[in-house]
Amino acid sequence: MNFIARAGGMLDSAWRLAGILLILLVVVFVLLLNSMEKNSQLNTQLESIRNKMNVYVVPGGEGGVYAPNKAELLLQTFSDYITQSLLTYTHYNLANQYSEVRQFLAPQLESRMAPKFRELVQRSSADQRSAIFIQDRTKLTFKSLSETNGRGRLFEVRVFGEQRYLIAGREVAKEPLQVTMRLRQQAPSKTNPFGFMVESYVAEVTKNR
Question: Looking at the predicted structure, is the pLDDT value of residue 85 above 90?
C-alpha cells in the first residue's frame, strides 16, 4: 500500500510538473509571437524610410549611379550634419548638439538662434520630448548664388522632410518641414573641415504632401 501511495504521489507530482512546463511553453510562445510582431512593424517602418532615400540617375550614366562632385558631396554632407543636429534630438542631448553646431553658424545668425534653442531645450526637458527628422532626399536642391563679395561662393540649399515628435518613445505628432539654408564657402580648417559657414537658416512647416 505504501508503494502504491508513493507511486501515486510521484505520478501526481509529475503531472503538476508537466502542467507547469506546459504553461511556461505557452508563455514563451506568446512572447515569441509578440517579438515577431514588433520586428515586423520595425521592418515596415525601416522599409518606409528606405523607400524615401534617393537614387541618383544621370542620363548616359553607367548602371544608373551618379557620383556627385566634391563640392556637391561636401554640401550634402554638411547640410545633413546641420539639419540632423538641429532637428533630430533627445531631451538629453539637444543642448550639447546645439553647442557643437554653433561654430558653423555665422555670428549674426547664432545670436538670433540662441534664444530660440534655449527655449526649445527647456521645453524638451520639461516634457521629455524627442524628435527625429526624416529627410526626403529626392527633393534636396542646391543653388549657387552670384553673390560673393570677396568672401567665397554662396550656396542656397533646400532640404525637405518630415519631423516626428516622440514622448516616452511614442510618436505624438509629425509635420512636413522645409529647411532653407545659405552656406558661405570658406577655406577648410581643423575647426571647420567642411569649409562652409551657415549664414541663414529657416525651418518652416509646409503643407501636407
Answer: yes
